[in-house]
Amino acid sequence: MKDTEREAKRWFLQAADDFKFVQWVLKEGVFFDKGCFVAQQAGEKALKSCLYSTGKRRVIGHSLLEMIIELIGIDKEFVKLQGQAKRLDRFYITTRYPNGLPGGSPFQYYTKNDLAEAASDLKTIFEVSRGFLSKNGINS
Predict the structure, then answer these.
(1) Mean per-residue pLDDT for 113-129?
(2) What integer pLDDT is reported at residue 140 of this predicted model?
(3) 81 vs 33, 114, 128, 134, CA distance in Å?
(4) Is the alpha carbon torsion for 6, 70, 82, 61 positive or negative?
(5) Count of alpha carbons within 13 angstroms of residue 60, beta-carbon side
(6) Tally of CA atoms within 13 A in the half-sphere of 73 that contains its CB
(7) How much is the pLDDT for 2?
(8) Most exposed: 3, 8, 114, 132, by fewest CB within 10 Å?
(9) Cα separation of 75 and 97, whole Å?
(10) Is the pLDDT assigned to residue 1 strictly greater than 70?
(11) 2-50 confidence digits (pLDDT tens)
(12) In the predicted model, is pLDDT for residue 126 greater than 80?
């Protein structure tokens, strides 16, 4: 197995574990800010796994949208993920730092509905990513 295949699997497995955490937080009905952040992180890891599967040796950055744009050049299936990527990218800073918001703290702003939408967007990213990995011979 090539190193990039192994790396793609490692990243996707971690993304899947993060997705389980998002689902748990949603079920528990607590820590919505942290759940939204982890949803963004799980999406980032899933997309990074796709980029690793193409032979990339280093994948740097945190923007899901930028990764989607790069992946569109490889597989047009990723076009349909632009909205999900944009929505999840909003959680990268504002869910963690009070100065990312005009007032208050992140735990005061995010709701169960925010997390439910994030989980739905993440599910769509996972479905497309899993399909892409499978097409590239990587079972996740």
Answers:
(1) 98
(2) 73
(3) 22, 18, 8, 18
(4) positive
(5) 1
(6) 7
(7) 67
(8) 3
(9) 35
(10) no
(11) 688 999 999 999 999 999 999 999 999 999 999 999 999 999 999 999 9
(12) yes
Following DSSP, what letter does each residue of the chain receive, concatenated? --HHHHHHHHHHHHHHHHHHHHHHHHHHT--HHHHHHHHHHHHHHHHHHHHHHTT-S------HHHHHHHHHTT-GGGGGGHHHHHHHHTHHHHTT-GGGSSSS-HHHH--HHHHHHHHHHHHHHHHHHHHHHHHTT---
Q: How big is the CA angle at 86 (ends 80 and 88), to the nearest 5 degrees?
A: 105
Q: pTM of the prediction? A: 0.96
**What span, in angstroms and rounded, lies between the C-alpha atoms of 22 and 129?**
18
Q: Supply the pLDDT for residue 19.
A: 98
In CATH, which superfamily holds the domain spanning 3-135?
A: Nucleotidyltransferases  domain 2 (1.20.120.330)
